[in-house]
Design brief:
The complex is a heterodimer of chains A (115) and B (221). With 115 residues, chain A is mainly beta. Chain A is built from two helices and nine strands; from the N terminus they run βαβαβββββββ. Chain B is built from nine helices and seven strands, in the order βααβαβαβαβαβαααβ. Chain B has a seven-stranded mixed sheet with strand order 3-2-1-4-5-7-6, sandwiched between helices. Classes of the chains: A mainly beta (115), B alpha/beta (221).
Chain lengths: 115, 221
């Protein structure tokens, strides 16, 4: 993955506008966060292969970045995005990695379902 | 260490075997005991991606599958099964179906010893759910046919609640295999390996003890 180049990511998001897409969205502190620090409140959310269409998209911030997708009847957003890649299957992979290289958030958009 | 007829190891993630049991498995294999390792997931939700990142959420399972195969080769495991569950979803599977899957493995392999996580004392929800499914499967067997079950526990409260481990294996004679196994899972262990090697060079007693002693709790039905 490469560090986010805002204009380039916006271009990729725009390409996917008004298409039938599959979304992977996750946030995580890791399963061991509360084990190593019992005062830490661990939380996370995960959705794989949400099937939707968005009519508008925007990447915001100066890095780490925020990304919002406006659908006909709702929203998808992610914050803390640092890296991006269009992979060999033409999927737009976005992720936020902390200072140790640990994934903290992922937003992925694909025209075909994720495995 | 007692000689076994067949060992079955059941863990949910590639690398779960590395720290806690790889020395024990290597000793069983040196003893001529066949070892089957059933790994439920490919660790798809691993978080170590490197800085700069060497993997994506989508490429990680392929990397970890290769690392799992490499680790099995290092230990000498000939029978590696990848069961096709997804990381962090094991606890949400239907309990009976998961336990039945474990029963099928046990029926097929007829192990004299099963190694898995101690349900409730293994920190990660996948660990607890995997251990629970194995225990349920063994519980369903007639008492006289049940294999021994050695559990791995490491939650902060485990010794308080289930006491000290009753079985400790000294694996110092195969420490090199164990370290190579940990290194095989390099995507997940690179940060730790660097630190560990420095500590080993200085022969820090706590680190040596952690590597050389593998602790198990025998499950009582």
């Amino acid at each position: 993955m490469e560090l986010v180049v805002k204009e380039q990511v916006q271009k990729e998001l725009t390409k996917l506008t008004n298409k039938d897409v599959y979304i992977h969205l996750e946030t995580t502190n890791g399963a061991y966060a509360s084990h190593f620090d019992e005062t830490f409140f661990s939380s996370g959310a995960y959705i794989r292969n949400a099937h939707l269409k968005f009519e508008h998209s925007k990447i915001a911030g100066d890095g780490p970045f925020r990304i919002g997708l406006k659908t006909t009847i709702g929203w998808v957003y992610a914050e803390g995005i640092t890296h991006f890649e269009v992979d060999s299957q033409n999927r737009l992979l976005l992720a936020g990695h902390d200072f140790n290289g640990k994934l903290a958030v992922a937003l992925e958009i694909s025209e075909t379902p994720f495995e | 260490m007692e000689k076994e007829r067949q060992v079955l190891v059941v863990f949910p993630h590639p690398d779960d075997e590395a720290f806690g049991v790889s020395g024990t498995l290597a000793l069983h294999i040196k003893n001529g005991t066949p070892v089957t390792y059933a790994c439920l997931t490919l660790g798809e939700m691993g978080r170590n991606m490197g800085n700069p990142p060497f993997a994506t959420r989508e490429s990680l399972p392929y990397i970890r599958r290769k690392e799992l195969q490499d680790a099995a080769n290092v230990i000498g495991i000939k029978d590696l099964r990848m069961l096709g569950y997804r990381d962090k979803t094991v606890e949400f599977e239907q309990e009976t179906a998961l336990a039945n899957h474990m029963s099928e493995l046990i029926d097929e392999l007829n192990p004299s010893l099963i190694i898995t996580f101690y349900p409730g004392y293994a920190v990660h929800p996948d660990h607890d759910a995997t251990g629970a499914a194995v225990i349920k499967a063994v519980e369903n067997m007639p008492a006289e046919q049940r294999p021994k079950v050695h559990c791995v526990a490491f939650s902060n409260n485990c010794e308080e609640e289930i006491g000290q481990a009753d079985t400790v294996h000294d694996v110092s004679t195969v420490a090199d295999i164990k370290i190579a196994t940990i290194k095989a899972h390099i995507s997940q262990t690179q940060l730790m390996v660097k630190e560990m090697e420095e500590q080993l060079q200085n022969s820090e007693p706590q680190v040596m003890a952690r590597i050389n002693n593998e602790r198990f709790w025998t499950y009582t039905f």
